[in-house]
Amino acid sequence: MTSQLPVDATTDDPDVLAAYRTDRAAFCPSGTPRALVRARSLDDVVETLRWANENNVPVVPQGARTGLSGGANALDGCVLLNVEKLDQILEIDVEEQIAVVQPGVINGTLAAAVAEKGLYYPPDPGSKDISSIGGNVATNAGGMCCLKYGVTGDFVRALQVVLADGRVMRTGRRTAKGVAGYDLTRLFVGSEGTLGVVTEVTVALRSAAARPLAAVAFFDTMSDACRAVADHLGAGFRPAALELMDAATIEAVGRMRDLGFPPGVGAVLIAQSDAGTRAPEELAAFEGSARRCSATEVIVSDDPAEADLLMQGRRLVGLALEQYPASLVDDICVPRRNLAVLVDGIERIAEEHGVTIATCGHAGDGNMHPAVLFDLAQADAAQRAFDEIMRLGLKLGGTITGEHGVGFLKRAWLARELDETALWSHHQIKQALDPRGILNPGRVINSTATGRGENDQRSF
Amino acid sequence: MTSQLPVDATTDDPDVLAAYRTDRAAFCPSGTPRALVRARSLDDVVETLRWANENNVPVVPQGARTGLSGGANALDGCVLLNVEKLDQILEIDVEEQIAVVQPGVINGTLAAAVAEKGLYYPPDPGSKDISSIGGNVATNAGGMCCLKYGVTGDFVRALQVVLADGRVMRTGRRTAKGVAGYDLTRLFVGSEGTLGVVTEVTVALRSAAARPLAAVAFFDTMSDACRAVADHLGAGFRPAALELMDAATIEAVGRMRDLGFPPGVGAVLIAQSDAGTRAPEELAAFEGSARRCSATEVIVSDDPAEADLLMQGRRLVGLALEQYPASLVDDICVPRRNLAVLVDGIERIAEEHGVTIATCGHAGDGNMHPAVLFDLAQADAAQRAFDEIMRLGLKLGGTITGEHGVGFLKRAWLARELDETALWSHHQIKQALDPRGILNPGRVINSTATGRGENDQRSF
């Protein structure tokens, strides 16, 4: 069957296929692919899509497969079109402050390469050391720095995209501004491989910021920490990061590394400032906010190395939660004033469903990642808790996903967030650009086309 | 005929219709509308579109009609759907730093209203005192502040949109982040009334910045000024504005107001800093750059009132050019390193075509507004010069429009900037969301649908 696919970089070795069947989303179904194409050129992508479109074969685009929503999981009979080997940084233009990269470049690799030239690529998802720019673009990934700098989409100037039928298109431009035509770039950013396959990304860069300093504040309750967030931001500050962790998260991370936090802490808030000479002033203001909101202790560091260590602790959360038998990581984002209500509600949901929920997240943006931790015997309760968190997020005026994407995991919920006409628009756009519905069918929206063989039931 | 339109706020008074036939673009054809609806409610918009869609009548959405590309000009037999009376600021949420406004709110009115609450709405097109938020959204308007803060689209969180068939849709969200579904908000931003009519806009705000200080540098040549731009930005600075004016522009403005500039100046560069305590440092660095690039004089002011006056001078350019019998204002944006080449090329184009071109613009973004100034007898030469500037912009890796939009004026040029597949995508999206092609047909893209009666020839 595979021999039909006119692309050299194709394999149908069952062991290899098995290894590429899933991303990092827990409990999302994955089907049995017919083939894997590890594209090594634009032509490989073009030929794969052209063939698949002609033959009505579903294609699942993949990058580093670090996604958390099942958007890169295999569908029965699909071609997995993996672009991780398209991993060249094609250009870093210091004067224009842009870089042109292939989709398989790892986020952290790009960030390091531009840093060597005195530049800064701000988007820094928690997965930055393992996730690729293509995937960051596909999900419009966020990170710690969004509060001050914005999300991935804010740094994408132009794309090269291969459409479902294999035609190649350029969107956007290299210039700082430009309004010629519809903003196709932003339409493709966050479209999770359902509208086209991104084969080249032009990103905007900034001048290197000062090495960040950090402060850490400890609280008895999450509620106090949330008040401190509101107090600090309400005073007009825009720190480079403002990260919140609850007791369960601190405990999980603490098992991997001694963070030197005092015992019995209910919540910790980490603020980072890269404002250079003004950083001490910003962090002093943060300390004031924290103390006004009943912080039990605040430590302001004047050593960038300490700030690194603190943020490394925060970045360990994902790994730390893997110690648990099973977890479902949520990603709601609410208006900041509702952060405390959200956090209270999450604690109530945990109690009601008899599961542990470890909550951390980008407090400055109102974007929280409550992780439902459970034994497999609790799977149904865990799923209900996971859903309940999204329901609460929507009720508080928020969204079901701040930065992880819809993928398979949350597509039933998309219809609760969007109104009927917005959903109709999604279907119309999908149909317009991928008339045969071969591109990642059934992800983000329930496409009416080929998504055959997909198990719509959640399979624990 | 109009009696069919089931909306009270309708007129077919020929004098009124005549007054609403055009925006501020020079030399764009405008047809004879059948009716004008001055919508006073969402229902007026819904009913107008529903009726027009059922009856296959073209609809031209209008706001303050300050656009510069003919996108709001009447088409023969169209309904002009004007939303300038939908002019309420519905909400300013200080804690969340967002505002919800109707499309007819004037940009400057919103900026002033949020400033009273200690907040800042950065997008500041040159037209800010007369242009409305709806139009700013429709064109993704820029301004002076884009270099530091971004364009209109960067501040739009959510929209209420009425689709061609009268259905109402919400896009986006109030939260700082969110990736649930396609980015319909950004698709509608900059779509110039061809995909839907925006009836509500939720914008992000920022904490008030410090009152800006400014410096002004004088040069013998535009080329020196361009080098100073590169020097200053290359050092990692990101001023709140970096505006360039050539001798012809200075002369035109000087006839309206004495700017106190030395005589015989070839180019002036104005830098603005709102960095508060760091503003003097930024402006001193700007002075250094200017002097390294042969500035004949540099004045650094420590008085915000003087900065205001300088920027007011810059903002007078539009009015100043109206002194000339006729003008065609271009809007190319090029990679910054090509700014000097662009400026040289524009001077050459002026000579070759025997017209005057006054050039000013947002030098920090590479976004220039060369205005071809001419007597009506020179109309053909002026048009050729205008086109030649766009050709040069594209050749230098730029775009035909940085912030004014395509409208009617530049739609033939869109096909030169975009590749065939990108153009196809535009048509597919247009067809998907407006199947009968009633919304602003023939603007941005040559729609295949109802654009009947439009004169495709430029009419001088």
From TrEMBL, chains A, B:
It comes from the Bacteria. InterPro entries: FAD-bd_oxidored_4_C (IPR004113), FAD-bd_PCMH (IPR016166), FAD-bd_PCMH-like_sf (IPR036318), FAD-bd_PCMH_sub2 (IPR016169), FAD-linked_Oxase-like_C (IPR016164), FAD-linked_OxidoTrans_Type4 (IPR051914), Oxid_FAD_bind_N (IPR006094), Vanillyl_alc_oxidase_C-sub2 (IPR016171). Its cofactor is FAD. SUPFAM superfamilies: FAD-binding/transporter-associated domain-like (SSF56176), FAD-linked oxidases, C-terminal domain (SSF55103). Residues 29-208 form the FAD-binding PCMH-type domain. Keywords: FAD, Flavoprotein, Oxidoreductase. Pfam families: FAD-oxidase_C, FAD_binding_4. This is FAD-binding oxidoreductase. It comes from Kibdelosporangium persicum.
